[in-house]
Amino acid sequence: MNPSLEAIGERLATYLTECWGHTQTLTLIEQIPGGASRETYRVRLCGADGEQGLILRRDPTSSLIDTERALEYQTYVAVYPTEIPVPEPLVLEEDPQHLERPFSVMREIAGCNSAVADLALPPYVGVRGRIGEIKWTLLGKLATLDIDTLGITSFMETPTHPAAHELDYWAGVIDADSLHPEPVAQAAIRWLKKNLPDPSGNLALVHGDYRSGNFLYTETGDIKGILDWEMAHIGDPLEDLAWSLDPLWAWPERTLAGGLIPRVDAIAIWEQVSGYRVDPQAFRWWQIFASLKGLAIWISSTENFTNGTTKEPILAVAGWLMTDRHNRILVDRLSPNSAHLYAEPVL
Amino acid sequence: MITTPGKALGDLAMKLALSIAPETSSAYAMANTGMIAVLLQALGQDSERAVANRLADIVEIKALFTAEGVPNTTARETFLHREPQSLRLSDVMTHHAEGLNLLIELHAWAEANNPKLDQSIWSFLLNHTERDKFDW
How close B134 comes to chain A (CA, Å)? Predict the structure, then answer.
């Protein structure tokens, strides 16, 4: 084991021994790549009941997405008893004295993959249609969950105008974090403000980052866990649908939404399961918003990489290459003379 | 001296991705090595073209500022007669930022007052993003 990782694992084992009241012995710890908002580790501990796999998520010193760890953890707690599969949340510790920074622990869902690139390769390519059907079925189910029954209204704001609320937030991120003028983002913000849809009246738990790469899938085409709820909030369910269909998640292929199934099929599944009809005008707004939100995250990660203390390569990749792609997608979507090279005409 | 730094960075990226990354001992190290290889590739492309691209943007922005129907402002007028302090990328970026800020202001005006100019600015934004795109 890497000595610095082992030290983290040993301290976690000590902490959980105190927490759970029986001895936990570290047998493995490894860092999982791609944890852009939290440092993520796979940990194995041996205790009286045998060995168990855990996922440790520790706050980084600098993050791609500025999020509230407590909100994310409470969302896992709220969603865990529902039909939406998520890892079992076990511990949230906000006191930095134990692992230098706040952290949470979840039970590992073993035997799964989450890599986007692998969806196009054997053995997964043969079952990606099934994965796609399940992915948008689960998203449809998420839209039907009652926010009061879930209990999320106790720790999440309930916006009166979800579209305006989200736009204000992400436009603010762009204004705060841009290191160079962003003419495409500013044009998109003006368009979104001018074309703001009326509130649909449909309020749901919005995952906030529902895309390929954020769920655990198996070789048999099942989805065992939806991950990365750090941007979860109460909002319009069309927001998640639009985000899930953003061209970036299928780049550069674009024929299959999220690299899985045709976008019309994804929308049809979502409509059937959620019981909602997609209003084309409102959906156009949410799709353009989705690309702007993506751009805002990449602009923010550029700022984090440049001025922050963590020099994680993923921040630079996101800040440099993803900014380029979402700029192109937004020009494609908003330009009056678009040749639609990067984004399909909306609906 | 390496006379083709862009190509050199691209070659190093390939070395890192194809020879070094597979030799790393953890998935975390391999993934990060791969990402750094991608960034080297991007840096290689940008080292070759960054100044030229920003200068091309500046030329096109200035053309938009002198287009028919564009009202004169002191800031735009001043920008039209100014050049970057040098061809160092940092100086070119400062001048580029000044031009883009003025362009953002003009674009907002054009959306309400001059549809033809609005269209021309979108054509510029298309050129601007295509010029800066990364291919790998």
Answer: 7
